[in-house]
Amino acid sequence: MSTSSRLHVPHPSARPGEEPDFSYLHLAPAGAIDRPSIDAAPRDIEHLSTELVRVLDDKHRAVGPWHPNLDPAELQVALRWITMNRIMDERLWQAQRQGKISFYMQATGEEAVSIGQGMALRPGDMCFPSYRNQGLFLYRGVKPFEIMCQCLSNTGDMCKGRQMPIMYHSAKGNVFSISGNLGTQYPHAVGWAMASAIKGEDHVAAAWVGDGSTAEADFHHALTFAAVYQAPVILNVVNNQWAISTFQGFAGGERKPFAARGLGLGIPGIRVDGNDLLAVYAVTLWAAERARRGGGPTLIEHVTYRGGAHSTSDDPSKYRPKDEWAAFPLGDPLERLKQHLITLGHWSDERQDALEKELRAEMLVAWKEAQALGTMIDGPQLDPSTMFDDVYAVTPPHLEKQRAQLLALED
Amino acid sequence: MAQMNMIQAVRSALDVMMNKDKTVVILGQDVGYFGGVFRCTDGLQRKYGEHRVIDAPIAEGGIIGASIGMGVNGLRPVAEIQFADYIYPGLDQVVSELARLRYRSGGEFFSPVTIRTPCGGGIRGGQTHSQSPEALFTHISGIRTVMPSNPYDAKGLLISAIESDDPVVFFEPKRIYNGPFDGDPNKPAVSWSAHPKGEVPEGHYTVPLDKADVVRSGSALTIVTYGTLVHVAQAAADLTGVDAEIIDVRTLAPLDIDTISESVRKTGRCIVAHEATRTSGFGAELAASIQETCFYYLEAPIERVAGWDTPYPHAFEWQYFPGQKRFAAAIANVMEAA
């Protein structure tokens, strides 16, 4: 240790041109971590926040106490959702590059979080997503066509042209509206869960933020309220290692895992292999059952990697090694689930190729249908006078006056 | 009818609504067991239980954020922020979330949260217990901003706020919680019992959220104000002997400009007044709106009576507070101008 004080500025393990280095990631072999009873006392299970729950081993077998024993048919459905998520992302990324939409964000490399958790939650449970949870929307019944219309801000846009791409919502599917401000949904999830408890219902809430957004005050507000009222909520931190160009060390991840953020409040934390759909599913089910039975909140850190750029607006080769994802020790969630199913004898590369081909065709049809409802350049257009709707429950006189002023100018 | 001060009127509104609608819940610091630092929720936890009147951690962003989530899940939360001066840590939840949820989700989600918060000076609160930040909230699309000036309106407006599906920020001028205040701190305190608006029905009634109130008719000039200064303006009119018409705005946003314009067109002279700092205060919006609708009727420039553009100073509270002398000077200016 130095004798004088110094300012520590965190540095990632590798920058462009350097060898990727994930030696900082504490790993554990699949099956090595115990699965405590759902009524375990937080102080007895603190190790779950620093270890790594994994089910799929290096030979693609499912092992250990967290093995959720899902049917191969269910796993095939999960693989289909993950693949759909990835292919839809590819389609919309290209659409942005073609100038058809203004912006997009892919979930590449972290799809197992949305799909695995979607599978573990009940339809009546409420999701408060972040901007990389499009898989949750798909899983909960929002069609790729609807996602595309939102990204196009066209006449079929669920947001009526008011939000930039990726800010979806689904009241029907119990998925909350994405804000665009980071971490704000965390206290909403806790409040929603408190209301569920007040009403005597057994629905739970779940919320997602990235590693970077754990620095926001709302994250800490939410943890405090969740702990104080033992709200039935699952608080997820998707640690994909990067917040645009700053690595997770800038959110304080260098010395303690994000899963341990709640320990001081008595919130159990589980650090899970976020690229292992079976492990994600299993820990989510554990946390949901615990919450449903009055056991309060759980903080889950999903260790994963942001395979693509943060968004269409940044070039990751400017701030991290180009081949970093390939070196990530937890691999690719799609590939790992596929290999697991192949190992089980319930899938093949050929079937995967056929699935991808089918989904690509499906996405192309959806994209054509969505564009038929207009793009920002051509086709049918939204009526600008609707911009005054929904500011209030009933539009007040001053906004009606402004609407009339706009219409007079448009004539 | 009963005699109530503003604290009792606010409590009565909460009681009536909690009794009528089991989805109404209260969340805030010290609101539960203790009944609030100003006693506005006194007895409500004993009556409705600790699942409906909930003491909260000291985190305004958490109180407002959790209230939003509760509202999305079918409850009708009334959040209390102990002093308006403390609301800033929760401001992002108001601006970016509460106010815009209905809009951004194409009308699919909304959260009918009412935020109650005591505001204003005159209680030796210094710069962190005296502020009037109402103008900030009038600048946010999607929020209704309310400030009553008497017990009758406080109860009726608060019931309207709770019943509204729009989010409402409800400012309670704490100097007049216990009685009207004419701006002279050296006079003995007056209770609401002698004031006609201290007569408050015990049951359910509403005061509309889109209607200003002409509290005194006059022909010489119009004073447009709200909160504590409604009473100071009346005293100043009496002091100067000018036949002033006084309008209590009550709901600042959306603003009932029609009632105000009608009065100014009649009198041709206007003062806008508030306790908050002058620059970019709500008086600026009032003056701009009035000149848009009344320019050719005006006999004199619109005068502003407001707090100085300084923080609220502890020792110089009564030099800061816009009292009767400042009103009298403004009245003289407006009346003298050709």
Could you characterize what this model shows?
- Chain A has 411 residues and is α/β, with parallel strands linked by helices.
- Chain A has eleven helices and seven strands.
- In chain B, the strands form three sheets. Chain B has a seven-stranded mixed beta sheet, sandwiched between helices. A five-stranded mixed beta sheet of chain B has the order 9-11-10-13-14, sandwiched between helices.
- In chain B, helix 8 links the parallel strand 10 (221-225) and strand 11 (244-248).
- Chain B folds into two domains: 2-200, 3-Layer(aba) Sandwich (Rossmann fold), CATH 3.40.50; 213-336, 3-Layer(aba) Sandwich (Rossmann fold), CATH 3.40.50.920.
- Classes of the chains: A alpha/beta (411), B alpha/beta (338).
- At the A-B interface, helix 5, helix 6 and helix 11 of A face helix 3, helix 4 and helix 5 of B.
Provide a count of the helices of chain A. Answer: 11
Q: pLDDT below 50 for ≥5 consecutive residues: which ranges of chain B?
A: none
Which CATH first-tier class of the largest domain in chain B would you pick? Answer: Alpha Beta
| Topology order of chain A in helix (H) and strand (E) letters | HHEHHHEHEEEEHEHHHH
Q: What topology, given as strand order, has the largest sheet of chain A?
A: 1-2-3-7-6
Please give the radius of gyration of chain A in angstroms: 22 Å
Helix content of chain B: 25-40%
Largest sheet of chain A: 5 strands, parallel
- From the spread of the alpha carbons, the general shape of chain B counts as globular
Report the sheet-strand fraction of chain A. 5-15%
Q: What is the CATH top level name of the largest domain in chain A? A: Alpha Beta
Give me the oligomer status: heterodimer
Q: Roughly what is the average pLDDT of chain B, rounded to an integer?
A: 97
Largest interface: A-B, 50 and 47 residues
Counted beta strands of chain B: 14
Cα end-to-end separation of chain B: 47 Å
CATH topology of the largest domain in chain B, anyone? Rossmann fold
Classified in CATH, the superfamily of the largest domain in chain A is: Thiamin diphosphate (ThDP)-binding fold, Pyr/PP domains
